[in-house]
Design a protein that fits this description.
alpha/beta; three-stranded parallel β-sheet
């Protein structure tokens, strides 16, 4: 009888191990704005593939028109594609009619079978009209919780240091694929954080892991682990 009881206890403990590990896993999402951008995006995609990482790309319509093949490559590689507007104009200054056109024209250039879940307004600049139009068009609004300003710094080591010094489980990291320094920084960040136990997933996958279903018109900037104590997740 004692042996049977001990066997049952051992089985229960073994079954509990995977879920305990799942709770301890740290997830972050890399997001890239303003592309696609030719050789920088191609180099980034190669680096992501080599590392087994999937990311989220917020693409501009006018760049999609120039690099349609890259959008296909991003989609086929399993990365997530979201909208960043057509012209990269400040959306807070646009009328509802102009906003709808920006989004519709960009959406029309997405690869076949690609359904955008998120809109990231350029610069994170929004308004009531942006929220209302996004909601009507079935788009959630995506901001970020870590911004190393790679577009301005142009120093891969400094960008890497800025990210790793503040990143936490559930963060959404803002980067760009517009320069070699940004691509260098992104790949170094991945290498560094993977060694520290972080796993990189798309924003939609991160939301799913955290039990969230992105809602049209709602604003998201991170997806913290609610099982952690206060201060343990993203701000």
């Amino acid at each position: 009888m004692l042996r049977r009881i001990l066997s049952v206890i051992l089985c229960v403990c073994l079954l509990a191990v995977p879920s305990a590990r799942a709770e301890e896993e740290k997830y972050v999402a890399l997001t890239f704005d303003d592309g696609p951008s030719g050789r920088f995006t191609r180099r980034l995609l190669d680096g992501l593939e080599q590392r087994g990482v999937q990311a989220t790309f917020l693409l501009c319509g006018y760049r999609l028109a120039v690099y349609p093949g890259l959008a296909e490559k991003i989609h086929e590689a399993g990365h997530e594609i979201g909208l960043h507007g057509y012209s990269h104009k400040d959306m807070a200054t646009l009328s509802p009619k102009e906003l709808k056109k920006e989004l519709a024209d960009t959406r029309a250039l997405l690869p076949a079978g690609c359904e955008a879940v998120f809109l990231r307004p350029p610069g994170g600049s929004g308004s009531a009209a942006v929220v209302q139009v996004a909601e009507k068009m079935g788009l959630a609004l995506l901001l970020w919780s870590v911004d190393p300003r790679d577009w301005a710094v142009h120093d891969a080591a400094a960008v890497e240091a800025a990210v790793v010094s503040q990143v936490r489980d559930g963060d959404v990291i803002l980067l760009h694929d517009l320069s070699d320094s940004s691509v260098d920084a992104a790949l170094s960040i991945i290498d560094r954080l993977q060694k520290e136990g972080f796993r990189f997933v798309t924003v939609s996958r991160l939301a799913e892991i955290r039990g969230e279903t992105p809602q049209p018109g709602k604003i998201y900037k991170c997806f913290p682990n609610e099982t952690l104590p206060p201060g343990g997740g993203c701000p």
